[in-house]
Every structure is written in structure tokens, then in C-alpha cells.
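> call design_seq(struct)
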């Protein structure tokens, strides 16, 4: 009885805002742990020590949004963004100590179809797993349970890597005409979207085809046309990457 009274007295001495803050911190930690668990395949927690990872060629495209909302490809922006992201990936893998290899241009050209296969699977994971809701597949039971089958084994044989890191990014920016149209429509009470940044990153076991880790980026911010901001995008896209421990 005395211990219960002592606990109650001690609890009363803690300000209410402190208790509320602690509850919020615990809730945030729980949400972060849940999100991390959803991004990993069942039973997978981190890469094995000294695991070799193939960094697949970046799949990046940048667009300008016209006044009417049409996406217009910008080759010069895409070229610059690809260079910035490649450099950011090199710096990222050095920071986390990733034993990574890249595929040569000839092999990339020969296996272009395999490399683009990632986009379709990543999009399916985004719709039916990452977003959740009514489009989630009941048979998956909320688990990251997706596979390429044996389709990616040629990449393993060509590179000597057991694992593959794939990235896909599409970034768009409102043109001056689009911005003007948005301003006019806002005066009329109609909201129009500007640009958006959408990206997927996947770690795949090239032998079994199993997707071991997945992350997506969907936001109205970010800019791949500048080196520093491109590096920030890479960091955001690879947040929670299960590096070897």
C-alpha cells in the first residue's frame, strides 16, 4: 500500500506536460519501429557482413510542368540530376561502409529490360503495400512479401554481387507559366498542383529475387537540379537502409 501511495505521489510531482511529452515520444518511437518493420522482408534485419551489393544504374527523369499540367521531359535537367545523384550515392555508400560494385555500360545496355523491371515491381509495392488502405493485398498480411523470382539472376552472374540496390526517381517542377496559372486559379478558389518528387529504392536478393527492403519518397519538395539538394534526396530515399552490422 505504501509503495503504491509513493508511486502516486511521485507521479503527481511530474508536470502534466512532461507526461504528455513522454507519451508522444513513446508513440513516435512505436510508429517509427512499425514503419521500419513494414519496410523489411519477414526475417530480414540487415545485410550480412562483407555482403557485395550491385548498385544498379539510376533510373531518373526530370520534367517541367506546363501551364496546362503536361509533363515535358527535360534532358539537360535529367543529365545533371543523374550526375549529382551518382556522386551522392558514392558518398552515401562510403559513409555506411557498403561493399558495392557497379555494372559496366555494356552490361547495362544488354540487361536494360531486367533493370527496368524494378520500376514495375516497385510501383506495385508502393500501391499495394507502402500506402496501405483499401488497395493493400490481404494475402500479404501487411508484410513486405514481394519477389522478382529468378529474373535477376543474370545480374548476379554478371556482377558477382549477391544483392542489388535499385533506385527510381521522377521529379517535376512547375514552369513559370504553370506558376502563373496556379496563382490565377487560386484567386478563383481552385487549387492546382505544381511539381512533385516520387522515388522508390529497393534492396533485392539477386539469387532468390526476394525484395528485402523497400522505401518510397512522395513529396512536393526537393530539387535534383542542385548537388546539395540531390544529396538530400538520396539520403531521404535511403533512410533506414539495412546496412551490414
Amino acid at each position: 500500500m505504501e509503495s503504491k501511495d509513493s508511486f502516486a505521489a511521485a507521479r503527481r510531482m511530474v508536470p502534466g506536460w512532461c507526461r504528455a511529452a513522454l507519451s508522444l515520444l513513446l508513440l513516435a518511437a512505436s510508429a517509427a519501429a512499425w514503419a521500419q518493420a513494414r519496410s523489411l522482408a519477414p526475417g530480414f534485419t540487415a545485410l550480412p557482413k562483407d555482403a557485395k551489393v550491385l548498385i544498379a544504374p539510376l533510373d531518373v527523369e526530370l520534367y517541367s510542368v506546363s501551364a496546362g499540367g503536361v509533363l515535358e521531359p527535360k534532358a539537360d535537367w535529367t543529365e545533371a540530376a543523374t550526375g549529382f545523384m551518382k556522386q551522392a550515392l558514392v558518398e552515401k555508400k562510403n559513409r555506411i561502409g557498403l561493399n558495392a560494385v557497379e555494372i559496366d555500360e555494356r552490361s547495362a545496355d544488354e540487361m536494360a529490360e531486367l533493370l527496368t523491371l524494378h520500376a514495375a515491381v516497385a510501383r506495385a509495392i508502393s500501391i499495394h503495400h507502402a500506402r496501405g488502405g483499401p488497395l493493400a493485398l490481404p494475402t500479404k498480411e501487411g508484410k513486405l512479401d514481394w519477389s522478382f523470382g529468378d529474373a535477376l539472376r543474370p545480374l548476379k552472374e554478371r556482377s558477382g554481387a549477391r544483392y542489388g540496390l535499385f533506385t527510381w526517381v521522377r521529379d517535376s517542377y512547375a514552369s513559370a507559366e504553370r506558376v502563373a496559372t496556379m496563382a490565377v486559379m487560386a484567386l478563383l478558389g481552385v487549387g492546382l498542383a505544381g511539381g512533385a518528387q516520387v522515388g522508390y529504392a529497393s534492396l533485392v536478393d539477386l539469387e532468390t529475387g526476394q525484395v528485402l527492403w523497400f522505401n518510397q519518397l512522395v513529396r512536393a519538395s526537393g530539387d535534383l537540379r542542385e548537388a546539395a539538394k540531390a544529396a538530400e534526396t538520396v539520403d531521404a530515399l535511403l533512410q533506414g537502409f539495412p546496412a551490414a552490422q
